[in-house]
Amino acid sequence: MIVVVAPGQGSQTPGFLAPWLEDPAVRDRVGAWSDALGVDLVAHGTVSDAETIKDTALAQPLIVAAGLITAGALLADGRRDLVGGVAGHSVGEFTAAAVAGVLEPTDALTLVAERGRAMADAAAIEPTSMAAVLGGDADEVAAALDARGLVPANHNGGGQTVVAGAADAIADLAANPPAKARVVPLAVAGAFHTRYMGPAVERVAPVAAAAAVQDPTLPIWTNADGSRVDDGRRFVDLMVQQIANPVHWDAVMESFSAAGVTGIIELAPAGALVGLAKRGLRGTPTVAIKTPDDLPAAIELLQAAKTEAEATA
Protein backbone atom coordinates (compact mmCIF):
# COMPACT_ATOMS: atom_id res chain seq x y z
CA MET A 1 0.00 0.00 0.00
CA ILE A 2 1.38 3.36 -1.07
CA VAL A 3 0.51 6.51 0.87
CA VAL A 4 0.87 10.06 -0.40
CA VAL A 5 2.01 12.66 2.13
CA ALA A 6 2.06 16.45 2.00
CA PRO A 7 4.71 18.56 3.80
CA GLY A 8 4.24 21.46 6.16
CA GLN A 9 5.61 24.95 6.57
CA GLY A 10 9.36 25.38 6.44
CA SER A 11 9.70 23.09 3.41
CA GLN A 12 9.43 26.00 0.95
CA THR A 13 12.53 27.31 -0.84
CA PRO A 14 12.95 30.21 -3.30
CA GLY A 15 11.83 29.32 -6.81
CA PHE A 16 10.41 25.91 -5.92
CA LEU A 17 7.31 26.40 -8.08
CA ALA A 18 9.27 27.42 -11.19
CA PRO A 19 9.74 23.93 -12.72
CA TRP A 20 6.03 23.18 -12.39
CA LEU A 21 4.97 26.46 -13.98
CA GLU A 22 6.79 25.63 -17.21
CA ASP A 23 3.57 23.79 -18.11
CA PRO A 24 1.20 26.50 -19.44
CA ALA A 25 -1.88 24.71 -18.10
CA VAL A 26 -0.38 24.57 -14.61
CA ARG A 27 0.65 28.21 -14.81
CA ASP A 28 -2.90 29.18 -15.77
CA ARG A 29 -4.31 27.15 -12.88
CA VAL A 30 -1.99 28.75 -10.37
CA GLY A 31 -2.78 32.15 -11.85
CA ALA A 32 -6.49 31.52 -11.30
CA TRP A 33 -5.81 30.52 -7.70
CA SER A 34 -3.77 33.69 -7.27
CA ASP A 35 -6.68 35.79 -8.47
CA ALA A 36 -9.09 33.98 -6.14
CA LEU A 37 -6.85 34.41 -3.10
CA GLY A 38 -5.45 37.84 -3.81
CA VAL A 39 -1.94 36.37 -3.45
CA ASP A 40 0.48 36.22 -6.39
CA LEU A 41 1.46 32.57 -6.06
CA VAL A 42 3.27 32.65 -9.39
CA ALA A 43 5.62 35.46 -8.38
CA HIS A 44 6.17 34.21 -4.84
CA GLY A 45 6.81 30.67 -6.07
CA THR A 46 9.38 31.76 -8.64
CA VAL A 47 11.18 35.03 -7.85
CA SER A 48 10.52 35.91 -4.20
CA ASP A 49 13.45 35.41 -1.83
CA ALA A 50 13.63 33.18 1.25
CA GLU A 51 12.79 35.96 3.69
CA THR A 52 9.68 36.91 1.72
CA ILE A 53 8.25 33.40 1.52
CA LYS A 54 9.01 32.82 5.20
CA ASP A 55 5.93 35.00 5.80
CA THR A 56 3.28 32.61 7.08
CA ALA A 57 0.53 34.29 5.07
CA LEU A 58 2.44 33.51 1.87
CA ALA A 59 4.14 30.24 2.76
CA GLN A 60 0.98 28.32 3.60
CA PRO A 61 -0.98 28.85 0.36
CA LEU A 62 2.24 28.39 -1.63
CA ILE A 63 2.91 25.01 -0.05
CA VAL A 64 -0.66 23.80 -0.50
CA ALA A 65 -0.74 25.01 -4.11
CA ALA A 66 2.48 23.12 -4.84
CA GLY A 67 1.07 19.98 -3.26
CA LEU A 68 -2.14 20.21 -5.29
CA ILE A 69 -0.20 20.71 -8.52
CA THR A 70 1.98 17.70 -7.74
CA ALA A 71 -0.98 15.54 -6.77
CA GLY A 72 -2.78 16.46 -9.97
CA ALA A 73 0.16 15.25 -12.05
CA LEU A 74 0.85 12.16 -9.97
CA LEU A 75 -2.72 10.91 -9.74
CA ALA A 76 -3.84 11.65 -13.32
CA ASP A 77 -4.90 8.91 -15.73
CA GLY A 78 -6.57 6.78 -13.08
CA ARG A 79 -3.56 6.55 -10.77
CA ARG A 80 -5.57 7.88 -7.83
CA ASP A 81 -7.04 4.38 -7.60
CA LEU A 82 -3.56 3.06 -6.80
CA VAL A 83 -3.19 5.19 -3.65
CA GLY A 84 -3.81 3.52 -0.31
CA GLY A 85 -4.26 6.74 1.65
CA VAL A 86 -3.07 10.27 2.33
CA ALA A 87 -1.85 12.40 5.21
CA GLY A 88 -0.35 15.84 5.62
CA HIS A 89 1.97 17.43 8.15
CA SER A 90 0.53 20.60 9.69
CA VAL A 91 -0.60 22.84 6.79
CA GLY A 92 -0.08 19.81 4.54
CA GLU A 93 -3.29 18.43 6.01
CA PHE A 94 -5.16 20.89 3.79
CA THR A 95 -3.44 19.41 0.75
CA ALA A 96 -4.31 15.93 1.97
CA ALA A 97 -7.92 16.96 2.59
CA ALA A 98 -8.23 18.10 -1.02
CA VAL A 99 -6.56 14.96 -2.38
CA ALA A 100 -8.93 12.81 -0.29
CA GLY A 101 -11.99 14.75 -1.52
CA VAL A 102 -12.82 16.35 1.83
CA LEU A 103 -12.41 19.85 0.36
CA GLU A 104 -12.42 21.11 -3.20
CA PRO A 105 -8.95 22.42 -4.14
CA THR A 106 -10.03 26.07 -4.36
CA ASP A 107 -11.87 25.79 -1.05
CA ALA A 108 -8.80 24.23 0.56
CA LEU A 109 -6.66 27.12 -0.69
CA THR A 110 -9.18 29.73 0.41
CA LEU A 111 -9.32 28.23 3.88
CA VAL A 112 -5.56 27.83 4.17
CA ALA A 113 -5.01 31.41 3.04
CA GLU A 114 -7.18 32.58 5.95
CA ARG A 115 -5.30 30.20 8.24
CA GLY A 116 -1.99 31.69 7.10
CA ARG A 117 -3.15 35.26 7.66
CA ALA A 118 -4.62 34.43 11.05
CA MET A 119 -1.49 32.62 12.19
CA ALA A 120 0.73 35.45 10.93
CA ASP A 121 -1.34 37.94 12.90
CA ALA A 122 -1.19 35.75 16.01
CA ALA A 123 2.58 35.39 15.60
CA ALA A 124 2.94 39.17 15.41
CA ILE A 125 1.56 39.65 18.92
CA GLU A 126 4.93 38.73 20.44
CA PRO A 127 8.25 37.38 19.07
CA THR A 128 8.11 33.58 18.90
CA SER A 129 9.79 30.88 16.84
CA MET A 130 10.46 27.16 16.42
CA ALA A 131 13.45 24.82 16.21
CA ALA A 132 14.03 21.16 15.46
CA VAL A 133 15.75 19.18 18.20
CA LEU A 134 17.50 16.06 16.95
CA GLY A 135 18.83 13.40 19.30
CA GLY A 136 19.79 13.88 22.92
CA ASP A 137 18.52 12.22 26.08
CA ALA A 138 14.74 12.65 26.33
CA ASP A 139 14.82 13.71 29.98
CA GLU A 140 17.63 16.20 29.39
CA VAL A 141 15.83 17.68 26.40
CA ALA A 142 12.60 17.99 28.41
CA ALA A 143 14.47 19.72 31.23
CA ALA A 144 16.08 22.15 28.79
CA LEU A 145 12.67 23.01 27.36
CA ASP A 146 11.08 23.46 30.77
CA ALA A 147 13.89 25.74 31.88
CA ARG A 148 13.21 28.04 28.94
CA GLY A 149 9.41 27.86 28.86
CA LEU A 150 9.44 26.00 25.55
CA VAL A 151 7.07 23.20 24.52
CA PRO A 152 7.03 20.42 21.91
CA ALA A 153 5.00 21.49 18.88
CA ASN A 154 5.70 18.67 16.42
CA HIS A 155 6.36 15.11 17.56
CA ASN A 156 7.96 14.04 14.30
CA GLY A 157 9.42 10.65 15.21
CA GLY A 158 12.75 9.38 14.01
CA GLY A 159 14.47 11.18 16.87
CA GLN A 160 13.19 14.62 15.90
CA THR A 161 10.97 16.96 17.90
CA VAL A 162 10.12 20.51 16.89
CA VAL A 163 9.86 22.86 19.84
CA ALA A 164 8.33 26.32 20.05
CA GLY A 165 8.07 29.37 22.24
CA ALA A 166 9.59 32.78 22.79
CA ALA A 167 12.14 33.73 20.13
CA ASP A 168 14.88 34.55 22.63
CA ALA A 169 14.37 31.20 24.35
CA ILE A 170 14.66 29.38 21.01
CA ALA A 171 17.87 31.29 20.28
CA ASP A 172 19.26 30.35 23.68
CA LEU A 173 18.42 26.69 23.17
CA ALA A 174 20.19 26.74 19.79
CA ALA A 175 23.25 28.36 21.34
CA ASN A 176 23.27 25.96 24.32
CA PRO A 177 21.79 22.65 23.14
CA PRO A 178 21.31 19.68 25.48
CA ALA A 179 24.13 17.13 25.49
CA LYS A 180 24.30 15.03 22.31
CA ALA A 181 21.41 17.01 20.78
CA ARG A 182 21.45 19.26 17.73
CA VAL A 183 19.12 22.26 17.57
CA VAL A 184 18.19 23.67 14.16
CA PRO A 185 16.14 26.92 14.05
CA LEU A 186 13.35 26.71 11.45
CA ALA A 187 12.34 29.17 8.74
CA VAL A 188 9.00 29.95 10.35
CA ALA A 189 7.69 33.17 11.85
CA GLY A 190 5.93 32.00 15.00
CA ALA A 191 5.32 29.36 17.65
CA PHE A 192 2.82 27.33 15.67
CA HIS A 193 0.83 24.49 17.24
CA THR A 194 1.05 26.09 20.68
CA ARG A 195 -1.11 28.31 22.88
CA TYR A 196 0.28 31.34 21.05
CA MET A 197 -1.98 30.42 18.14
CA GLY A 198 -5.22 30.59 20.13
CA PRO A 199 -6.38 33.79 18.40
CA ALA A 200 -5.90 32.11 15.02
CA VAL A 201 -8.13 29.18 16.00
CA GLU A 202 -10.92 31.58 16.97
CA ARG A 203 -10.61 33.37 13.63
CA VAL A 204 -10.38 30.31 11.36
CA ALA A 205 -13.08 28.22 13.05
CA PRO A 206 -16.12 30.11 11.66
CA VAL A 207 -14.60 30.17 8.16
CA ALA A 208 -14.02 26.43 8.29
CA ALA A 209 -17.54 25.84 9.62
CA ALA A 210 -18.96 27.53 6.52
CA ALA A 211 -16.86 25.49 4.06
CA ALA A 212 -18.41 22.78 1.90
CA VAL A 213 -17.11 19.46 3.23
CA GLN A 214 -17.45 15.87 2.03
CA ASP A 215 -16.43 12.60 3.63
CA PRO A 216 -13.05 11.35 2.37
CA THR A 217 -12.94 9.01 -0.59
CA LEU A 218 -9.42 7.90 0.32
CA PRO A 219 -8.18 6.83 3.76
CA ILE A 220 -6.82 9.87 5.61
CA TRP A 221 -5.00 10.10 8.93
CA THR A 222 -5.04 13.03 11.34
CA ASN A 223 -2.12 14.83 12.99
CA ALA A 224 -4.15 14.99 16.20
CA ASP A 225 -3.40 11.43 17.25
CA GLY A 226 -2.47 9.51 14.09
CA SER A 227 -5.88 7.87 13.74
CA ARG A 228 -7.78 7.41 10.50
CA VAL A 229 -10.75 9.76 10.14
CA ASP A 230 -13.77 8.80 8.03
CA ASP A 231 -15.91 11.87 8.73
CA GLY A 232 -14.98 14.90 6.61
CA ARG A 233 -16.42 17.49 8.97
CA ARG A 234 -14.56 16.00 11.92
CA PHE A 235 -11.34 16.05 9.92
CA VAL A 236 -11.75 19.75 9.12
CA ASP A 237 -12.55 20.51 12.77
CA LEU A 238 -9.41 18.68 13.83
CA MET A 239 -7.35 20.69 11.33
CA VAL A 240 -8.59 23.91 12.88
CA GLN A 241 -7.86 22.77 16.43
CA GLN A 242 -4.42 21.62 15.26
CA ILE A 243 -3.42 25.26 14.77
CA ALA A 244 -2.90 25.56 18.53
CA ASN A 245 -2.14 21.92 19.37
CA PRO A 246 0.90 19.69 18.73
CA VAL A 247 1.34 17.68 15.55
CA HIS A 248 1.80 13.97 16.22
CA TRP A 249 3.49 12.84 13.01
CA ASP A 250 5.15 10.04 14.97
CA ALA A 251 1.67 8.62 15.57
CA VAL A 252 0.79 9.00 11.89
CA MET A 253 3.86 6.96 10.92
CA GLU A 254 2.90 4.32 13.51
CA SER A 255 -0.52 4.13 11.83
CA PHE A 256 1.17 3.76 8.45
CA SER A 257 3.16 0.83 9.78
CA ALA A 258 0.09 -0.79 11.31
CA ALA A 259 -1.81 -0.39 8.03
CA GLY A 260 0.93 -2.19 6.12
CA VAL A 261 2.29 0.74 4.14
CA THR A 262 4.85 -0.41 1.57
CA GLY A 263 5.87 2.94 0.10
CA ILE A 264 5.61 6.69 0.68
CA ILE A 265 5.41 9.46 -1.91
CA GLU A 266 5.87 13.03 -0.73
CA LEU A 267 4.32 15.88 -2.69
CA ALA A 268 6.20 19.09 -3.42
CA PRO A 269 7.94 20.91 -1.81
CA ALA A 270 9.19 17.49 -0.79
CA GLY A 271 12.02 16.16 1.32
CA ALA A 272 11.20 16.60 5.00
CA LEU A 273 8.67 13.78 5.38
CA VAL A 274 10.59 11.15 3.42
CA GLY A 275 13.55 12.06 5.63
CA LEU A 276 11.47 11.29 8.71
CA ALA A 277 10.21 8.07 7.11
CA LYS A 278 13.76 6.88 6.48
CA ARG A 279 14.38 7.06 10.23
CA GLY A 280 10.92 6.20 11.56
CA LEU A 281 9.89 3.60 8.95
CA ARG A 282 13.25 2.11 8.07
CA GLY A 283 13.35 0.14 4.84
CA THR A 284 10.12 1.61 3.44
CA PRO A 285 10.67 2.83 -0.15
CA THR A 286 10.14 6.56 -0.58
CA VAL A 287 10.02 9.10 -3.39
CA ALA A 288 10.23 12.85 -2.86
CA ILE A 289 8.63 14.77 -5.73
CA LYS A 290 10.54 18.05 -5.86
CA THR A 291 10.20 18.75 -9.59
CA PRO A 292 8.35 17.16 -12.53
CA ASP A 293 11.50 15.13 -13.18
CA ASP A 294 10.69 13.10 -10.05
CA LEU A 295 7.24 12.04 -11.26
CA PRO A 296 8.36 8.93 -13.21
CA ALA A 297 9.93 7.39 -10.09
CA ALA A 298 6.78 8.09 -8.07
CA ILE A 299 4.53 6.65 -10.76
CA GLU A 300 6.77 3.58 -10.97
CA LEU A 301 6.39 3.05 -7.21
CA LEU A 302 2.60 3.24 -7.51
CA GLN A 303 2.49 0.86 -10.42
CA ALA A 304 4.89 -1.59 -8.79
CA ALA A 305 2.62 -1.76 -5.76
CA LYS A 306 -0.35 -2.53 -8.01
CA THR A 307 1.57 -5.27 -9.78
CA GLU A 308 2.64 -6.82 -6.47
CA ALA A 309 -0.92 -6.69 -5.13
CA GLU A 310 -2.25 -8.40 -8.26
CA ALA A 311 0.42 -11.07 -8.04
CA THR A 312 -0.48 -11.93 -4.45
CA ALA A 313 -4.27 -11.71 -4.91
Describe the global form: globular
* Strand runs, count: 9
Low-confidence stretches: none
CATH class of the largest domain: Alpha Beta
Number of helices: 13
Lateral strand order in the biggest sheet: 6-3-5-4-7
Number of domains: 2
As a percent range, the share of helical residues equals 40-55%
Q: Tell me what the CATH architecture of the largest domain is.
A: 3-Layer(aba) Sandwich
What is the fold named in CATH at topology level of the largest domain? Answer: Malonyl-Coenzyme A Acyl Carrier Protein, domain 2
Order of helices and strands: EHHHHEHHEHEEHEHHEHEHEH
Strand percentage, roughly?
15-25%
The major pleated sheet works out as: 5 strands, mixed
Alpha carbon gap, first and last residue: 13 Å
Mean pLDDT: 94
Classify the secondary structure makeup into a structural class.
alpha/beta
Provide the gyration radius in Å: 19 Å
So, the CATH homologous superfamily of the largest domain? Malonyl-Coenzyme A Acyl Carrier Protein, domain 2
Could you please describe the fold and organization of this structure?
The chain folds into 2 domains: 2-123 and 194-312, Malonyl-Coenzyme A Acyl Carrier Protein, domain 2 (3-Layer(aba) Sandwich); 128-185, Alpha-Beta Plaits. It contains 13 helices and 9 strands. The protein has helices at residues 24-37, 41-44, 50-53, 56-74, 92-99, 105-123, 138-148, 167-175, 198-209, 232-242, 249-259, 272-280, 295-312, and strands spanning 2-6, 83-88, 128-135, 151-157, 160-166, 181-185, 247-248, 263-266, 286-288. The strands form 2 sheets. A 5-stranded mixed sheet has the order 6-3-5-4-7. The chain has a 4-stranded parallel sheet with strand order 2-1-8-9, sandwiched between helices. Helix 12 (272-280) links the parallel strand 8 and strand 9.
